[in-house]
Design goal:
Helix content is about 25%, strand content about 30%. The chain has ten helices and 24 strands. The protein is an alpha+beta fold. The strands form seven sheets. It has an eight-stranded mixed β-sheet, with no helix packed on it. It has a four-stranded mixed β-sheet with strand order 3-6-10-9, with no helix packed on it. A four-stranded mixed β-sheet has the order 19-20-21-22, covered by helices on one side. The structure holds tryptophan (TRP) and zinc ion.
Length: about 475
């Protein structure tokens, strides 16, 4: 689905070509030399142009829907942590330019067949990219169905900082969490938040195991010792938020006070302590939904719930409609991941440099929840951040551009949240909470940037805030006079 961006300025054709000429940029699909009117079909680029992850996503395509048919066998008891995954991904996409070839992101698994519009096509594959050459070539605006058959051995992939992510093989299944660019370790994807799509899943695993994906459970069928789990996730979703976690899970379902169906999946092998903590925290889900609806507007998706695995990737993730927790779900983290459904999932970062809009809001949401429960107030949490000495390297991170190795740094979370609290002080409670809701209605379903946030803050408050945001988001120093 196209990310919802403000409509581009409509410039009359003549004026547009003057603009193009003066900028010395070739028009996207110009006529071949000496052959006016013949469109030139180019290759789609290997990335969407995100400087932090240059190969993430792909140019020239807009995915509408992924139907992922997966067959997975986890390691045998006591064997090394590798599994066998076979997949058929049926991808409905639209060409956004005339294409002689386009890419999908795919890593560590081998494609064996690619069918476009019902016919087998030529393709090639390197470490990160699957390159498909459709014939006939795709015309801009054409919608087509791409079916990729692929598979291989799953491992425990790591992101550039060395954190586990993607399809992480476990003793009883797999933990599947993809932020920022790990979706390509388990399906051929346009792996960037600027291309959201709906998803459906058919995941076949050995009988006795449960496969948990996003959205609503449609049913399960068992035959010949294998069970197929069917999930439907119709809300637009970035690839990093998809999951197909497999394990010894117990599923439970109920309806929250706001009407949202909740499906939780708790690993049978959690320790007694972790199970007790997890159950107490998840029992607050309904109250938290209501709490964040009051502040950010209606819950944006058809379902919610948690997955708690007995293995660990070292962090929790706000997988869309079904947050993932490693070993235990603690109350603050449950609030954090739930708030991400509005802040991060419904409104997603335009570029990975915009990550503070996810983590700042989710951390601030923890502060707000804590205050509401009679623990530390948001002001006290803010003062704790301000208590970090000015010469601490914490203040060196440029929050609006932390670099690809800094997207999960402490400053992105805590200075990000402090920025929001300081902004609230600057513009007042009424403007601040109006801003939160407007942010979600204005950009929900798509992506937004830091500049979008600054512009909306200024328009909602009627204040000029450039200097404020420079100090909080751009300066590699501790803000003074707060
Ligand atoms: N987005 C996750 C959260 O804050 C955090 C996350 C994803 C993360 N990948 C990570 C944290 C790697 C540390 C390392 O909920
Ligand atoms: Zn977070």
């Amino acid at each position: 689905m196209p990310a919802r961006r403000p409509a581009p300025l409509k410039i009359p054709l003549a004026a547009a070509s003057v603009l193009v000429a003066s900028l010395c940029i070739a028009p996207a699909a110009h006529a071949a030399p000496g052959n006016p009117g013949t469109p030139r079909y180019g290759p789609g680029t290997a990335g969407v142009g995100d400087p932090y992850f240059p190969l993430a996503g792909n140019g020239g395509i807009d995915v509408l829907h992924y139907d992922l048919d997966l067959d997975y066998t986890p390691p045998a008891a006591g064997a090394p942590l590798t599994g066998e995954l076979q997949g058929v991904a049926t991808i409905d996409l639209v060409a956004t330019q005339d294409l002689r070839s386009f890419n999908l992101d795919l890593r560590g698994l081998t494609a064996t067949q690619v069918v476009v519009g019902g016919k087998a096509m030529a393709f090639s594959q390197d470490d990160q990219e699957l390159v498909v050459s459709p014939r006939p070539k795709l015309k801009a605006g054409a919608q087509t169905e791409v079916v990729v058959t692929y598979g291989g051995t799953t491992t425990r992939p790591e992101d550039i900082e060395g954190a586990l992510y993607g399809w992480v093989t476990t003793a009883d299944g797999a933990m599947v969490v993809n932020e920022p660019d790990g979706a390509s370790t388990w399906f051929p994807a346009n792996d960037h938040p600027t291309d959201k799509a709906s998803y459906s899943f058919e995941i076949t695993v050995p009988e006795g195991l449960v496969a948990v994906a996003n959205g609503l459970l449609q049913g399960s069928e068992t035959s010949a010792g294998r069970t197929t789990w069917l999930w439907d996730a119709p809300d637009p979703m970035a690839a990093y938020l998809a999951t197909a976690t497999v394990g010894d899970f117990a599923l439970s379902q109920y309806t929250a006070a706001n009407g949202t169906p909740i499906i939780d999946a708790l690993d049978d092998d959690l320790t007694a302590d972790n199970l007790a903590t997890t159950e107490a925290s998840l029992a607050l889900t309904g109250e938290m939904l209501t709490f964040f609806e009051e502040r950010y507007g209606p819950y944006p998706f058809i379902a919610y719930g948690a997955i708690v695995d007995d293995d660990s990737v070292g962090y929790a993730l706000e997988t869309q409609t079904r947050s993932f927790f490693s070993r235990v779900a603690r109350e603050g983290t449950v609030a954090h991941e739930l708030s991400h459904q509005w802040m991060g999932n419904h409104v997603s970062p335009e570029r990975w440099s915009d990550i503070w809009l996810n983590e700042g809001w989710a951390t601030y949401s923890e502060w707000l929840w804590s205050e509401d429960r009679g623990r530390a107030t948001a002001e006290e949490s803010f003062q704790e951040v301000l208590a970090i000495p000015a010469d601490d390297e914490f203040w060196e991170t440029v929050v609006r551009d932390p670099g690809p190795f800094g997207i999960f740094s402490g400053a992105v979370y805590d200075r990000g949240a402090a920025t929001l609290h300081a902004l609230r002080g600057e513009i007042g409670d009424d403007a601040f909470f109006a801003l939160a809701k407007t942010w979600v209605t204005e950009f929900g379903g798509g992506t937004a940037s830091t500049d979008d946030f600054i512009a909306l803050s200024e328009s909602v408050s009627g204040q000029q805030l450039d200097a404020f945001f420079d100090v909080w988001l751009a300066a590699p120093t501790k803000p003074v006079s707060w």
